[in-house]
Amino acid sequence: MACANVAVAAGEPGAAAGRRPRGGRSRRGRVLAGDLARQAAARMGCFIVDARRLLHIYADLIAESLAAGKEVRLIGLGTFKPLPHRRRQTVKFLAAKRLREAAARAPRLRAEPGGVAALADRLAAAAGAGTEESAPMP
User: Is the pTM here over 0.70, yes or no?
Assistant: First the structure.
């Protein structure tokens, strides 16, 4: 059963002009709830509104369980554990093994030894290396 309102990919006939592509990622590299709803609707063969409603229901159920002091475990995703404090409740998330392994394979940015100043000095030296002004004086 095909879903009647599945998002049309950018560039295809009927795609809205001037809107960001609906490929599953926003401009900043985040996957938003609307993107998840569109993908879930396409996979399940249902309406996007129903998939979005389901995501909101899951979030509400998780929040209610945590507020009641219960641990929430989602297989393949991880475990949410409530940590009560005096003034507020904190939630600790323990990622599932599959998620940890995927994160370990992802490329990472590493801090430059010496911090930001050392990086700025190296960039300035590299930019000036090809000019006559940076040549050593005899």
Answer: no
Longest dimension (CA), the chain: 79
Angle at which helices 48-67 and 33-44 cross, to 10°:
120
Sheet of 72-74: strand order equals 72-74, 78-84, 89-95
Tokens of residue 92, six digits: 């600790």
Q: Are the beta carbons of 72 and 80 closer than 8 angstroms? A: yes
Q: Compute the distance between CA of residue 97 and CA of residue 75 in angstroms, rounded to an integer.
A: 10
Q: Report residue 29 as tokens.
A: 């590299």
Strand pairing partners for 82?
Answer: 91
Report d(CA 60, CA 91) in Å as an integer.
15
Encode the chain (138 residues) as per-residue pLDDT tens digits: 344 333 333 333 333 444 555 554 445 678 888 999 999 999 999 999 999 999 999 999 999 999 898 999 999 889 999 987 777 878 899 899 988 888 888 776 666 566 666 767 777 777 665 555 544 544
Q: Within 10 A of 16 (CB to CB), how many other CB atoms are there?
A: 10
